[in-house]
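Translate sequence into structure tokens.
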Amino acid sequence: MHELFNPERLKIARLRRKMSYKTLAELSGLTTKTLSKYENDGIKNPPTPESMTKVAKALQYPVSFFYQDEIDTLSTETVSFRALSKMTAAQRDAAISAGRLSFVIEAFIQKHFDLPQPDLPDLRNIESEMAAEAVREHWGLGNKSIKNLVHLLESKGVRVFSLSENTLDVDAFSFWKNDIPYIFLNNKKSAEHSRFDAAHELGHLVLHKHASPFDSDEPNSSRSAEQEADDFASAFLMPASSVHAVSFDFLSLETIIEMKKFWAVSVLALIVRLKRLRLLTEWQYRKLMQEASTSGFRKKEPFSVQKEKSMVFEKILPMLAEDGINIKTMANQLHLPLDEVTNLVFLPSVIA
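Result follows.
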């Protein structure tokens, strides 16, 4: 363990646990003033071992976590959040902190394995539909259905991590760091919604690379970027040519449910796509959306597909285990709580 206390790591852990100074003070038995001093001036005024033990216990982090090297920063302005308007500041800060913890895991993986290099085209200033077609062509996908989007993204060098935020308000987010693309998916979502989130974030990565519209002075730039990413996701998952190729006599909700199975998308996403491709009239669109809502499909998906998990972690975790490094050993070596590691690598949060 390093001898020097790292105040920034205290901030990361506190934000990750969504704790205010007041809450942490109540749980640790220390004062808010003392905690603020540790976090903001901890290099000059480091905590005593006794105090740090109390803080670590309250945060459920190993004491050694707070005595390691700096973790790379992650600016809010560089992050694309799938549903920023729904999130509280605490939820946003917790998600950002999860992103920073992923850098620790990523460095560990890079040390032991060679991962695919990023292969994402830069499509800034390209219209969403055309951009989706360009990515499909670049990756040689044609117009076929994508069976496992997480596996596809990882094979193209995207680092995909999972989030267990216990809220549906934190959908997904993405960013570029050192020319490496990252995507984080909330595993509380249905498989279909998570796939759309992943495609949405891919849209941000190729359409808005290193030019975040979320830090722009232009009015509605964030809203416009979200719409562009939504349009990209829709076109990427449901290519126009393959949707047009489906023959049907009458589009009922039952027909939509059958059709959605092919692209593994939600009922609502398919209805919106059919409307955008002018395969539905305004009346048909409204009727189908009303029927889907009445059937509860906004909250629960019919004939839902299996949730996607990481191909990278499915492969490397058994290989590490062969070398005597199981998930608990890995967490210990990284000085991270077990739950933080399992949550990020698509594993259940409780492991026997």
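Note: The longest strand covers residues 180-186.
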